[in-house]
Amino acid sequence: NVQAFSMPPATSVPLSARACVPGHRPLPSGIGPFLWLARVCLPLGTYRGPHRPPSLPPCHLAWPGACSPWGVCCPRGAWGGAAGRGPQEPLCLFQSPRMGTFIGVYLPCLQNILGVILFLRLTWIVGVAGVLESFLIVSMCCTCTMLTAISMSAIATNGVVPAGGSYYMISRSLGPEFGGAVGLCFYLGTTFAGAMYILGTIEIFLTYISPSAAIIQAETAEGEAAAMLHNMRVYGTCTLVLMAMVVFVGVKYVNKLALVFLACVVLSILAIYAGVVKTAFDPPDIPVCLLGNRTLSRRGFDICAKFHTANNSTTPTALWGLFCNSSMPSATCDEYFAQNNVTEIQGIPGVASGVLLGELPVPEESRASGLPYVLTDIMTYFTMLVGIYFPSVTGIMAGSNRSGDLRDAQKSIPTGTILAIVTTSFIYLSCIVLFGACIEGVILRDKYGKLVIGMLAWPSPWVIVIGSFFSTCGAGLQSLTGAPRLLQAIARDGIIPFLQVFGHGKANGEPTWALLLTALICETGILIASLDSVAPILSMFFLMCYMFVNLACAVQTLLRTPNWRPRFRYYHWALSFLGMSLCLALMFICSWYYALVAMLIAGCIYKYIEYRGAEKEWGDGIRGLSLNAARYALLRVEHGPPHTKNWRPQVLVMLNLDEEQRVKHPRLLSLTTQLKAGKGLTIVGAVLEGTYLDKHVEAQRAEENIRSLMGVEKTKGFCQLVVSSNLRDGMSHLIQSAGLGGMKHNTVLMAWPESWKQEDNTFSWKNFVETVRDTTAAQQALLVAKNVDLFPQNQERFGDGDIDVWWVVHDGGLLMLLPFLLRQHKVWRKCRMRIFTVAQVDDNSIQMKKDLQVFLYHLRISAEVEVVENDISAFTYEKTLMMEQRSQMLKQMQLSKTEREREVRVRERPCGPHPHLKSQNGSCCHALLSHQAQLIHDRNTASHSVVATRTQAPSTPDKVQMTWTKEKLIAEKYKNKEPGVSGFKDLFSLKPNQSNVRRMHTAVKLNGVVLSRSRGAQLVLLNMPGPPRNRQGDENYMEFLEVLTEGLNRVLLVRGSGREVVTIYS
Question: Which residue ranges does the record assign to the Amino acid permease/ SLC12A domain (predicted)?
Answer without folding.
Answer: 105-276, 381-652
